[in-house]
Amino acid sequence: MNQTDANIKLLSRTMFRLLPIQTLMAAVGAVNGFVSSYFACNFVSVDAVGAIGIFGPLSMLVGAVSTMLVGGAVILCGRYIGKNRQEKSQNVFALSLMLSALIAFLFTLLFVVLGLFDLTGFLARDASVRPLFNRYLIGQSIGVFPSVLGNQLFAFLSLENKTGRSIIASAAFAVANVVLTYLFVCVFGWGEFGLALASSLGMWVYFGVQAQYFLSGKSHFRLFSGKLDWKETLDIIRIGCPGAISSGHQTIRGFVVNTLILAFVGSAGISAFAASDNLLKLFWTIPSGMMAVSRMMLSISIGEEDRESLRDTMRVMFRRFVPLMCCVSALLILFAVPLTRIYYQDATEPVYKMTVWALRILPLCMPLSVICMHFICYGQTSGKTWFVHILSLVDGVLSVTLFTALLIRSLGIISVYVANVLNGIMTTLVILIYSMLMKKRFPRDIDDLMVIPDDFGVPESERMDLSVRDMNGVIEISKRVQDFCLGKGIDRRRAYLAGLALEEMAGNVVDHGFSKDSKKHSIDIRVVHKNDDVILRIKDDCVPFDPGERLSIANNEDPAANIGIRMIFKIARDIQHRVILGMNVLTIRI
């Protein structure tokens, strides 16, 4: 196995470990939609499903703003973490929560006013559906606050490496949502309002479970951090805006597509599209989780100016994530009919046939969307603003609405499904064309496709990447580090100390970290020559271990204990230890 494959394997293992948690985050809203549409179909009415479908664009609008704050805050925090600026990352966390609370209050007020005063005619033009939609909207307003703030806390729990808390919060929401929906709809008969109220109260449970950890005093990020630096607000919005614009474009697309369906197909088309969409959202959580994981990895790589990790993240997307989504799509198409029967049982009804075709066609766009989502995320984290705007505009509005408008007269509701697949092809072409325009050639490698600046990170000639799996490897690599340093003109003393530091610290990981569990581990080592400094970065996926904390404990216990760690702290100019996404990252500057 060459070094690139070894790095990808380690990164892939880390990303797949984080993927279930990030998928759970995305699944919260998907579970809500699935439960609501299922009970609406089977216990309320088909028009109730239409009301849920009409609410979809409004939900996406709230999601767009939430995505902006979450994306901007996480990316900015990732950069500060990569630069080891903890006080700045804490300020971003607290500030993002304050902004989220303000936005949530405004949306809550808007939903209540629209629903109470019947101001929703521009959304629900069908007179028989509008009263149902008004009641559903008022019920949903109760859950806006915990939904927006809950998304923030979920993202930062990942940075805290508290996956257990995330799982508990998601499970608590799912259970509360199902139980309360059954109680309010089937027992009390509250119809559309009961559907919305159940999901809203479930969101309060979801938010409460997460907030308890941050209120316990055990978290790295604190809810209250004294005086806030409000200047960071513009950075959060600027960084998160491209992601929000993407969701905002999808909101516009939702309004336009709903209007076209109502005009050319009717309410049955809205019900079929809403049912299939809410079911597929359960599976869309997988690419959403993939994007969330990659966003964190990309932002940290950019903060560290780590060119190799940056492109390896994209390699994992192409080699692991895209094939996985191809398998998911194939299974959805294969089981289109039984999945349709979750909602509709009468095969003679038009809504049944429309739903079957949705589940046979829409999954085809999932693998292509994984590529699009990752390049939007990469453009967002790397500051490629215009690229993100163009790609988001094509993906969010232009392709789907244009192809739907052109085809709906001849294909009916199937035009919407086909338009989504054509959209995936168009966005892939946009990515390729952008690379060709910027590089003035067809992309020859991942660097060309991503258009990574030539001056980004340390040149390959000034660094060396290595992997260690056992103690024999540690000893061998220690000698290679010395040779690398001597080859870069570093004096023999510092070259020897660099090799010694690596042997001591990496050997400590092998001796103590590898034996803590039955999992297979490896150590990712990078040696960098920069400004006449030798920088060693040692990254592993073992249990968290901070040598600085261990040294402090040893100083209070036995002066002879941990003599190796003591020695390294004396010879190094600077030592920094961080736990990033569940990985120990030790940086030694000599």
What is the alpha-carbon Rg in Å? 26 Å
Q: What general form does the structure show?
A: elongated
Number of strands: 5
- Helix and strand composition category: alpha+beta
Return the string of H and E elements. HHHHHHHHHHHHHHHHEHHEEHHEE
Largest sheet data: 5 strands, antiparallel
Strand order of the largest sheet: 1-2-3-5-4
Task: Give the total of domains.
Answer: 2
Helix tally? 20
- Which stretches are poorly predicted, pLDDT < 50 over at least 5 residues? none
Distance between the termini: 30 Å
Describe this structure as you would to a colleague.
The protein has 590 residues and is of the alpha+beta class. The chain has 2 domains: 16-446, no CATH class; 463-589, Histidine kinase-like ATPase, C-terminal domain (Heat Shock Protein 90), CATH 3.30.565.10. It has helices at 3-44, 46-82, 86-116, 130-141, 144-159, 163-187, 191-215, 232-264, 267-303, 307-334, 336-340, 350-361, 366-382, 385-411, 414-439, 446-450, 471-487, 492-513, 547-557, 563-571, and strands at 463-468, 523-530, 533-540, 574-580, 583-589. It has a 5-stranded antiparallel β-sheet. A hairpin with a 2-residue loop joins strand 2 and strand 3 (533-540). Helix 2 packs antiparallel against helix 3 (86-116) and helix 2 (46-82) packs parallel to helix 9. The model has no long low-confidence stretch (mean pLDDT 85).
